[in-house]
Amino acid sequence: MSIDKSYCGFIAIVGRPNVGKSTLLNKLLGQKISITSRKAQTTRHRIVGIHTEGAYQAIYVDTPGLHMEEKRAINRLMNKAASSSIGDVELVIFVVEGTRWTP
């Protein structure tokens, strides 16, 4: 009797709104799973995409953008969804927009 080993991990993709989190997920999976748009708050719920290769499986979690201002209820809800995803994964990919960096 042989037992095949398999490896699986959860990876959260987090960052501010409109930094390319959904685009990155689509590229990593090689297909369009998550909606992409120039409009902020396009992703309002966690989107899960799975990549399997041999005995290895990566489960990516695309999260809503993290908002600095929590005045609106929708921003608070999306921050909660993104924050709760961080605690449930083995790896976090934090995406930043390089064009807005300042020296």
Automatic annotation (TrEMBL):
One of its GO terms (cellular component) is cytosol. InterPro entries: G_ERA_dom, GTP-bd, GTPase_Era-like, P-loop_NTPase, Small_GTP-bd. GO terms for biological process: ribosomal small subunit assembly. Pfam families: MMR_HSR1. Residues 7-103 form the Era-type G domain. SUPFAM superfamilies: P-loop containing nucleoside triphosphate hydrolases. One of its GO terms (molecular function) is ribosomal small subunit binding. NCBIfam families: era, small_GTP. Belongs to the TRAFAC class TrmE-Era-EngA-EngB-Septin-like GTPase superfamily. Era GTPase family. This is GTPase Era. It comes from Escherichia coli.
